[in-house]
Amino acid sequence: MPIDELIALASIRSGKKKKALASEMGHADETRLSKLASGRLKADASEIVFLAAAAKLDPIKVLAEIESERHPELAGVWGNLITSAAL
After folding, report:
1. Which one of 27, 28, 33, 62 has the minimum C-beta count within 10 Å?
2. Tens-level pLDDT at each residue, the chain (87 residues)
């Protein structure tokens, strides 16, 4: 899932504007979210998990999907985590 879609979905499903989400993440304004959405910055794991939870998605699955896309050479590691978590 592209991070811009995750941010939009988090805003919609949580009923919160991006500024409120950013504030809950510890940022003074939504500038960081804008930079994440545009690809100028890369979201860290905590940000991805926070946004996934706000979007009412499984945070580990979303993190695994995003990290697998970022680092295809490690996709198997993330796939194994998802498989283990499902058991």
Report:
1. 28
2. 999 999 999 999 999 999 999 999 999 889 999 999 999 999 999 999 999 999 999 999 999 999 998 999 988 888 887 777 665
Cα–Cα distance for residue pair 32/47, rounded to 1 Å: 10
Q: Give the number of other CB atoms < 10 A from CB of residue 19.
A: 15
- For 14-54, the DSSP string reads HT--HHHHHHHTT-SSTHHHHHHHHTSSPPPHHHHHHHHHH
Query: How far is CA 56 from each of CA 11, 23, 66, 67, 73, rounded to the nearest angstrom?
Result: 11, 18, 16, 19, 28
